[in-house]
Amino acid sequence: MAARNHVLTRAVVALVAASTLTLSACSGDDSSGEPEATATGESSPSASATPTVAPEPALGACYRLTVAQLTEAHPEAAPVPCTQPHTTQTYLMTTLSGIAEPIDATAVAATAQRQCRGALRAYLRATPARLALSRATSAWFVPTDDDLEAGARWLRCDVAVSRTDTTLMNLPENAAGLLRRDAALDRYGRCASTDQAGIAAGRGGRVCALPHTWRAVSARRLGAAGDPYPGASVRGAVLDRCEDAARAYTDNSTGDIDVGWLPPSRAEWAAGDRFGLCWTRTRE
């Protein structure tokens, strides 16, 4: 799945103390109770207004979000009961770490993405390779710009599964441990309905629960967390990288076989994706 990009528009908001008119009216027999203006037209100061910060989301809450809503930094959709159809579930509620004043939108996005991504594998109980071979992904949500300015620092991480490139899959009532077994990839794995050129271009992606013509059968680690993007070297002889895995999956030891190779894009690498995927044509 392509790296998730958020656009946080940081408004520089000056919190100015509000003054209210609190003069009591007590002239003559006038008992109307209406405030009386001073001679200069100025009002007397009162306590400053306290910014209202939205409440934090709840851990374990479920939502019926769309692919487009996964790219929104600030959540607006209300949760739904997890017994009803839903496409995301909150697996982590934590605090944004290392965010200094003034608020830097780029730092917020990078920190949120790193924290959510780091916790996803443990929540799904997946090996790194199994997570790479699945269509499970994380989405992050943070307070609004105004709430960040007021001191809110919560971070909400939701898990989702991309059913196709434009739709999300309904999740079980509790998504914890979703990928704990290899067999989970038969439902949530990376498959595609396309041709060989489409695999190289990353087209036609879908979960393996849907009819498909190709399946990702092996994930090859291409670098460590701090390594720079390897550029053209991530592309190479497909057979050298993937033939053995494709033959093992299809039980084809000698005959002709179709294989494909899909390395991470530069954006995916920047988001922490270090796996290239080996694909083979299936009989489905």
Q: Compute the number of strand runs.
A: 9
Walk across the major sheet and give the strand order. Answer: 6-5-7-9-8
Shape: globular
Distance between the termini: 22 Å
SS-derived structural category? alpha+beta
In round numbers, the mean pLDDT is: 83
Give me the Rg, rounded. Answer: 26 Å
Content of β-strand? 15-25%
Biggest sheet features: 5 strands, antiparallel
Q: Helical percent range?
A: 10-25%
Number of helical stretches of at least 4 residues: 7
Q: In sequence order, what are the helices and strands, one letter per element?
A: EEHHEHEHEHEEHEHE
Structure commentary:
- Helix content is 20%, strand content 17%.
- The two termini are 22 Å apart.
- It has helices at residues 105-124, 128-132, 145-149, 185-188, 196-201, 238-250, 266-270, and strands at residues 62-63, 88-95, 136-141, 154-161, 190-192, 205-207, 214-221, 259-262, 275-281.
- The chain has 284 residues and is α+β, with helices and mostly antiparallel strands.
- The chain is globular, with a radius of gyration of 26 Å.
- It has a five-stranded antiparallel beta sheet. Strands 1-2-4-3 form a four-stranded antiparallel beta sheet, with helices on one face.
In short:
This protein has helices spanning 105-124, 128-132, 145-149, 185-188, 196-201, 238-250, 266-270, and strands at 62-63, 88-95, 136-141, 154-161, 190-192, 205-207, 214-221, 259-262, 275-281.
Provide the fold topology:
Blueprint: E1 62-63, E2 88-95, H1 105-124, H2 128-132, E3 136-141, H3 145-149, E4 154-161, H4 185-188, E5 190-192, H5 196-201, E6 205-207, E7 214-221, H6 238-250, E8 259-262, H7 266-270, E9 275-281
Antiparallel strand pairs: 1-2, 2-4, 3-4, 5-6, 5-7, 7-9, 8-9
